[in-house]
Amino acid sequence: MQPAGHRVTWDEFRAAFRAHYLPPSLIELKQREFRALRQGDMSVLEYVQAFIRLSQYSPEDVNTDPRRATHLLDGFDPTLLTHLGRSYDGFNELVDVAIDMEHRLRRGP
């Protein structure tokens, strides 16, 4: 219980919520799922959506924008990866470039 007048921060709320509603075994399972996530047959958009959804279970893996971008990049389909390069200003730019490149590759020359 918090002292009177204490304002609960988002981090405190999230930690209390997780502790009450998410068993550690589920969090561990989702962390493994996140760390093993690869694009495979998903579109870039589907992969990014899965990445964002699962990343909430492993915040230490994506606690900076460069780490987030690197982790996403590492899971891209190898064919797409050969066309992307590795230097981006951040996660959002990487997503934009990947979506554009996927569209170009599907469209053909």
UniProtKB/TrEMBL annotation:
**Matching InterPro entries:** Retrotrans_gag_dom
- Pfam families membership: Retrotrans_gag (PF03732)
Source taxon at top rank: Eukaryota
Which residue ranges does the record assign to the Retrotransposon gag domain? Answer: 8-76
Q: What is this protein identified as?
A: Retrotransposon gag domain-containing protein
- The organism's lineage? Eukaryota, Viridiplantae, Streptophyta, Embryophyta, Tracheophyta
